[in-house]
Amino acid sequence: MRITRTGGGHGRRVAAVTTTVLTASALLLTGCSSDSSSDAKDSNGNITLTVDDFGQFGYKEAGLFAQYHKLHPNITVKENTTANEQDYYPKLLQQLNTGSGLGDVTGIEVGRIKEVVDTQAAKFADLSKTINVSDWVSWKEKQATASDGSVIGAGTDIGPMSLCYRSDLFKAAGLPSDRDSVAKAVAGGWEDYLKLGEKFKAKAPKGTYFMDSASAMYNAVVSSSAEQYYDASGKAIYKNSPAVQQGWNLAAEAASKKLTEGLPQFTDAWTAALRKGTVATVACPAWMAGQISINSGDAYKGKWDIARAPGTSAGNWGGSFLAVPKSGKHVKEATDLVKWLTAPEQQASVFKAIGVFPSNKGAYELASVKNATLPYFNNAPIGQIYADEAKAIPEAVLGAKDGTIKDTISTQINNMEQRGTAPAKAWKAATESIDKVIG
Q1: Helix (H, G, I), strand (E, B) or coil at 285
Q2: For the chain, first and last CA: distance in Å?
Q3: Closest CA to 316 of 411, 234, 191, 225
Q4: Angle at Cα 133 formed by Cα 127 and Cα 134, nearest 5°?
Q5: What's the pLDDT score for residue 16?
Q6: What burial class does residue 45 get, using C-beta atoms within 10 Å of its C-beta: 0-12 exposed, 13-18 middle, 19+ buried?
Q7: What's the pLDDT at 41?
């Protein structure tokens, strides 16, 4: 899914800004409107369903829209993709407020789902009448459930954590390089990860850096806590949150010790660094593997590997939902498409195609997930690594402005890395900016 996510990555996905249209011959029959509210049926009963999403959901890569057209010859699916979720979401809110321009299906990032559920639920179809909510990991569909019990989003992926690393750079720096040894080296937590970073820096190949960005590590740290930016009552607690304080302090340490290249994820500079091979480690929710392989390219195939995440606390960073606006002209057909796209077999296909991990529990028992390895990452057993992590992920409390808080804190962490801003000054700037938004 997208692979851009709020908070230093929104994670889900950085694909080029593009419109992917499959089964072009059918599209010619139905028309090719850029308005996301799709055309009515033509005289032959053919329709086009528009899916608006961000980053990389993996449906194109897995060939699912083409497959759906074969199953339903009268339906063509058109995908409108925005590269950056931070650009996508304001447009979505504007469309919801005006009632114009919405797709038949629309993606919603986990950092936004609470706000949408609380303020916009009435504008979406209740998917609980179509999907079996219990098929998903329990906390996933709770995130998309409104106070009246309606479910406005079907879960796509989740982001169980791991650590992606360059085994060749580790060897060059005299560090352990097989995945079990790397996992053991960081078993004590993210503090151990920074200690490993100092060892890497001491003998690092010229022009390389231990991690891409401290803000990415920050998000990984916070993601392992059930209580992050809000408490269960809906009160913003980010200023006193132990998870936020730990993540911030570790990020400040990484910046001050220059263990990071200081590159906000999904920027041009970040993708260039992966292509040039200057980054040794990336905090790696499941969806990140696809981004690394795409941007690093064939030159580094087999040189990247995946180890278990630092520490013993499981974390989830990222994940998205598919929702169906009630204003669409083909709500039933759109709902059927969402049900099919988020079924175990289709989630397994996306996992195989780009590495994003299913939220539908039924996929976990499929051989293509359970026994999955990732050739690009030295055949890392990602099915096992991510499934074990997913089973231990705590049910996180979400807040209406989670995405805004993450983005703002990440920006100030970037300032510590790139501009040398003092941690106290950066924290003050972050909190002042956040308070203006959340009151």
Answers
A1: coil
A2: 31
A3: 225
A4: 170
A5: 25
A6: exposed
A7: 66
